[in-house]
Amino acid sequence: MSAVQQQRSAGEQLPLALVSEGSTVRVLKVRGALELRQHLQELGFVPGANVDVVARAGRDVLVSVKGSSIALGRDMALRIITT
């Protein structure tokens, strides 16, 4: 079991950027400036939303949230805290 999987199984908070491909997590909160938080909420990253990590490409991550596929850069994905 990887360190990321151990953290998830313990229910700890983990930035979306660190979640393994193939995992499903739940959004706990979104950090950042008001405009950024609003933008991510409009994309579906709201507390309680399930997020499937579909693929990883380098530092970027492709996720599925509320029926939409979204590609996020690492900096953006670090601001989405999951459990």
In short:
The protein has helices at residues 3-9, 34-42, 74-77, and strands at residues 14-15, 24-30, 50-57, 60-65, 68-72, 80-82.
Which helices and strands occur, and which strands form pairs?
Blueprint: H1 3-9, E1 14-15, E2 24-30, H2 34-42, E3 50-57, E4 60-65, E5 68-72, H3 74-77, E6 80-82
Antiparallel strand pairs: 1-6, 2-3, 2-6, 3-4, 4-5
Molecular structure report:
The chain is of the alpha+beta class. The chain is 24% helix and 37% strand. It has a six-stranded antiparallel sheet. The model has no long low-confidence stretch (mean pLDDT 91).
How would you describe this structure in keywords?
83 residues, alpha+beta, 3 helices, six-stranded antiparallel sheet, globular
Largest sheet: 6 strands, antiparallel
| Oligomer status | single chain
Please report the distance between the alpha carbons of the first and last residues. 17 Å
Q: Tell me, rounded to a whole number, the average pLDDT.
A: 91
Radius of gyration: 12 Å
Structural class: alpha+beta
Strand tally is: 6
Unreliable stretches (pLDDT < 50, length at least 5) are none
Strands in their spatial order, largest beta sheet: 1-6-2-3-4-5
| Range of strand content | 35-45%
Overall form: globular
